[in-house]
C-alpha cells in the first residue's frame, strides 16, 4: 500500500471518529458504513460544513457528523435542534448527542449542497445555551454521469481541396459531474470514423482536415466523434456524436468539349439572327464555377456569333451577317470556352479554357433579286417636259441561274400617273409636269421580280427630289387694310408691307418694292424700300378729304432675286376716314368702312328707320292674328273637349248613329237652340236622282249643292268647329252606279246622320 492510500485511510478514520462515542454510549447506531465520509470544522460553536458521498444505497441512516457544545456535560440538560434544507426528512439529529444522520440517497447533480442551522437549548428552561449556527452539508461527487453532446448532431461545410490542418468545426460535450473534484468531468475527444481525412484535437474537440479531398470524387463525409471522461482512463463513461461534413465547390476544373469538331448547315436565305446550332463544353464544377463564355476567334466573328444559355451553359451559334452560297460555301470556325470565374490558386495549372472547331456549310437557295443600292436618290427640275429622264435603278439575280429582272412601280396609283419605269431597263421618266410647290419630294417604291420565278420579289425606295425653278412671282402675304385720316401730315407712315414667294431660294429671298409705272406720278403716297424684305407706305401730302375721294388705289411693284427674276404688281387700297384729334384707329376704320360701302351717315339712319318700321308692322300683324283666333272661341279653353272615335270595323255608314255621342262636344253653358228641320228627304232624293241625268252645269245640280250647303249650315247638332262636307256626285254614265246611301232601299234619315 502506497503512502497516498495510507493517508486517505487515516483521513477517513479521523472523520468518522466523532460518531464513535455516540455509537458506544447510546447503541442506537451500528457502524455498518465504515467508509462514510464526513468532516467537521469547529470554531467554538461555529460549524462550517460536512461532506457525504452521493448515490450511496442506505439500509439504515448514515452518520454524517456530530454537533456538540463545549458546555455540554453529557447530563441530558442540552437539547440539539436542526433546521434548514431537508431537516427532519433527509437529515435527522440526535437531540441528546447532536449526531446528524442522512436517511436518503443523495444525488449531487440534483442538489449539490444543503444549508442547515443548528442550535443548542436548555431542556429545562427552553433557553438557548449557544447561538444558532449555520453550516453546509456538501454532497461529494462520484463519476455517475456520461458526457453528452448537447448541440449534436453537427453539420459543417468546408471548401474542397483545403490544405491539411484546416479547421472544420468544434464539437463540445458536457459532463454533469463535478469538474472541481477528481477526473469525473475531465473529457478527452477522439475520432471513431472519418480517418484519414479528418482528425480531432483531444482536449478542444476541434475537427481538422488531415488530407485534401476533391468534391468531384466525394461530396459528403460522415465523422463520428467520441468524448470520454476520466481523461480517457478505463472505467470512465463516454458519449458520441455525428458530424456531417460537406465539401463546397471551387473552380478547380476547366471546361472540356466532348467533340473536337461540330458540323452545321445554314441556308443562304436565312435572315440575320437565325440559329445555326448548339455546342456545349462540360465542366465538373457547379454553380458559378461552371459558368462559361463562348468566343469565336478570327474573322469569322464578323459573320457568326455565339451566345451562352445561362441555364444550360450551351453555346448557341447564330447568324450575324447574311451568307451567300455563290460567294462562299464553307466556313471553319474556331470556338473557345472560358470559365467566367477564375481561381488564382489553380492558374499555375494552365488556362481554364478549351477549344473546338465548327464546320458550317452554306446551302444554296433561290434568292430574290438584289439591288445595287439600298435606296436611290434622284433629282429633276420642276417644269421638265413629259418623258424627261429621272434616273435608273439596277437589280440582279444573285443565283447562278441569273434570271432576267422585271421592274415596276407599286403601292401608289398617284405616283404611277406621275412616273413610269421601263420594265426591262429600270429607267424612270416623268409622265406629267411636276410642281415643286405642290410636292418637293416623291417616294417611289420599285419592285424587281425574277421573270423565271415571279415569287422572288425585292423592293427598293427611290427618293425623287423636284428641284426648284423660279416660276412664282412674289406677292403680298395677306390682304392689307390701309386707312388714312383726313388730318394726316405728309411723310407719315401708314402701313408696313412685306412679300412672300412660293419658290425656294438657295441664297434666301430678297424682295424689292417700288411704285408701279402707272403710279410713279402719284402725289398722294410713296413707297420706301427698307432693304429687309419690307417696305413702308408714306403719305406724300398734308390732309385728305373723304368728300372728294374716300379711297385711293396704290399699285406696288415687287421684284424677287430669282434667276430669272420675276415681278408682280399688287394693288393696295387706302381708305380715307374722319378721325378725332387722337386719330382713333377704330373710328377711322368705321368711317372708312361706311365710305367703302357707299353710305353716308344720313343714309345709314334711314336704313335703320326702315328696318324698325318693318319690325313694328310685323309685330302688329302677329298681335292682330292672335286676337282673331281668340274671338273664334270666346269660351274658356278648358270647356272645350275633343272626342276621338276609333272604328275598328267598317261600320254602317251614314246610318250608324251609335258610334259616339256628339252631345259630349257641347259646352255646359252654351247650348244651341234646337230648331225643327223640315223634311227634305223626298226632295233631296228626287233632286239627287235628277242630277244623275244631268251634268255639273245643270241648274238641278247647282240646286242640289245649295240645298246640301244650307242643310249643313242650319244643322243645330253641328260641332263648333269646321266640318268637311263630302258630296259624292258621280254624274251620269257611271258603270258602277251610285254608291250613295240615298239610293239604297233604306231611305236616308238626316236626323240620324253624323259628321266627321
TrEMBL record:
Protein name per Swiss-Prot or TrEMBL: Cadherin 19
Domain Cadherin: 69-149, 150-257, 258-371, 372-476, 476-590
Segments passing through the bilayer: 603-624
The UniProt record lists the keyword Calcium: yes
Membrane topology: Single-pass type I membrane protein
Taxonomic source organism: Gopherus evgoodei
Molecular function terms, GO-annotated: beta-catenin binding; cadherin binding; calcium ion binding
Classification of source organism: Eukaryota, Metazoa, Chordata, Craniata, Vertebrata
Domain of life: Eukaryota
Subcellular location: Cell membrane
One matching Pfam family: Cadherin
Listed GO CC annotations: adherens junction; catenin complex
Key word Lipid biosynthesis present: no
Secretion signal, residue range per the UniProt entry: 1-21
Keyword set, alphabetical order: Calcium, Cell adhesion, Cell membrane, Cleavage on pair of basic residues, Glycoprotein, Membrane, Metal-binding, Repeat, Signal, Transmembrane, Transmembrane helix
Function: Cadherins are calcium-dependent cell adhesion proteins.
A GO biological-process term: cell-cell adhesion mediated by cadherin
